[in-house]
Specification:
Number of domains: 2
Strand content: 5-15%
Distance between the termini: 80 Å
Largest sheet: 5 strands, mixed
Shape: flat
Order of helices and strands: HHHHHEEEHEHE
Radius of gyration: 23 Å
Number of strands: 5
Length: 251
């Protein structure tokens, strides 16, 4: 009897996880057109990440609430402060285990292709949502990975080039042999217009929309100065630790 109850509990737990993954895939499919249109890269770790992140966030908020209440009533909360610091340290250590290439960008296809992703997910959920959860999860996962992989494979260019304004200065972005190169003839990366917002959001979004890539492999500059070497460090930070090669631009 006890074994049967334990077995049903384990089965129920796994079915709950499967329902959560199915819901997460459906929400990703609904947001796919918006994410791709704005050049926001996706991560294959988002599914398992949410499963582990939500319990962590729940414990984090609970400890924070206890610390707040204790401080309001004048009770020492040093033990809970140490527990909160330990919890954050464990989480930061876990984040360092994630590879820098965990983000996958998708080039922007025409709007009809973007809308096919949520429509297909809705069809799967409509016809199979009331049946076994494992079948729904399998079909939803197959649809998402197949469609995402097909769009990335078909619409990612083999070569290309476009210009991007950084304030009043221009930067050329070039794709060749699967490698992204920034050509900064005017040293725009060292200007005041090259803000953290431009480096963290404008440049990666344009690279994702046009090339389907977010990692910069090469940096060509007009003049190799100490300020430009610091700009190379900013690009390395943007690449999540991957340092691009830097050269002096030559016609």
């Amino acid at each position: 009897m006890v074994d049967l109850i334990f077995f049903k509990g384990v089965v129920g737990l796994f079915e709950s996880i499967a329902r959560a993954l199915t819901l997460q895939l459906f929400l990703l499919a609904l947001s796919f057109p918006v994410l791709v249109s704005f050049g926001i890269p996706l991560s294959p770790l988002v599914l398992v990440g949410n499963i582990f992140f939500m319990p962590f966030l729940t414990v984090f908020l609970a400890i924070s609430l206890v610390i707040y209440i204790f401080e309001c009533v004048g009770i020492s909360a040093i033990f809970f402060c140490h527990a909160l610091n330990m919890l954050v340290s464990v989480w930061l250590a876990a984040l360092k285990m994630v590879p820098f290439c965990s983000l996958v960008a998708c080039p922007k296809p025409p709007w009809p292709f973007l809308l096919m992703m949520p429509l297909g997910a809705f069809v799967v959920l409509r016809h199979y949502g009331g049946k076994r959860v494992w079948i729904t999860l399998f079909l939803m996962g197959c649809w998402y990975t197949t469609f995402f992989g097909g769009v990335k494979w078909f619409f990612t260019p083999r070569c290309g080039e476009f210009s991007l304004m950084c304030g009043s200065k221009k930067i050329d972005c070039r794709l060749k042999n699967g490698k992204v190169c920034l050509i900064d003839r005017e040293n725009a990366l060292t200007s005041r217009s090259c803000t953290s917002f431009w480096m963290d959001y404008v440049l990666p979004a344009e690279l994702a929309r046009k090339f389907g890539m977010v990692v910069i492999d090469e940096l060509q500059v007009g003049h190799l100065t100490p300020a430009m070497l610091r700009a190379q460090d900013r690009v390395t930070l943007l690449n999540k630790g991957y340092e691009p090669a830097i050269f002096v631009y030559a016609e």
